[in-house]
Amino acid sequence: MITRVEIDGFKSFLDFKLDVPPFLALVGPNASGKSNLFDAIAYCLDSRRYRSDAILADRRGRPVELFHMDSAGRPVDEFGVTLRCLLNLPDGLAGIEAAADARLENGVPQYQNDHTGILDLAADTSLPKGVRARESREIHDSFNDDARFSDTVVAIDAALTQVLFYPGDPRAMRSVASLADQRPLRSDGANLAAVLGRMGSSSALDDLMVDLAALVPDVREVRTELDEKRQEWSFELVLEGQGSVPSTLLSDGTLRILGLLAALHDPDHAGVLLVEEIENGLHPGRLAELLRRIQERVTDLNDPASLDRPLRQVIITSHSPVVVSELYRSRPEALVFMDTAVRVDPDKERVSRVTVAKSVRDGGEPGTFVSPRQVRKYLGTVRQDEL
Q: Does the model's pTM come out above 0.90?
């Protein structure tokens, strides 16, 4: 679970800091930096997987375009991304700092290094007491024990990579999947049939069905089928008035919602789920219900029983007024408005347009928050049929 993101010099970010709760909605217009934030998180995590090749990983923009550019088109010399995370490791809860950076060498992007550090949860007053009390001293000790350090870092890196960037590709989600595939849902959803098949052996598929029926009312059942000879899973939905409909004939929107719910309910793979434009493929009238269902699945840091289970976090992006309306009413602390602002650096004679994040609160430094009055004013300009 990510608890804080700090970015400096990556794409549209300069000296950017954002505290991240278990459920977070980033709302704002196009080109406000919502996708760039996901790209920054991906870069930091890719550094764990690919090390020096992280700068070359498949993402939006060429390597040189990862570096922030000012209004004159001049890139910064280096960038850095730092994630503070809460991990549920075999020895207990641990606060981990993961960082990665890169710099330009003679105009050529070069991966610089990555860093993994241990945080003192007990001293972090921003966390609930129950979380601080569960901090594992074993993990702290292993950072000072050469014999155990490498194994601890391997476990940390494995936990850090339990992050799913979910756009969902309906074309891929319609396909069969191998019985041998025990992985979490892939970003494109190509192994959805295998995930559903695996979930069928537990109550998780029944729980998923309850949520799916609330969002797609015509659905009566999710059925999985294993081809023993080919060792491949397939699935179909039973729809009211239509009977059994194979995955190849399901709508894009239904498949995308089914994949999202599969990731949320997968009992074997928790972690962090990042979803861009959550409203895609879903009727606006069902969006508020989806948000409520998601919030029921994420970890409650104030609930000791929730901390006993694998940590689950969801971060979404949206430009839908329905998201603003629902979360302002029920969970305003989960609502962050993304916008851009002009920043002037007189020392370096730079003028830049940068991403800023504004939480909902009554007051603070100008330009760093959105007041409840401003939210109500915005919602007052939205047509009722959009809410």
A: yes
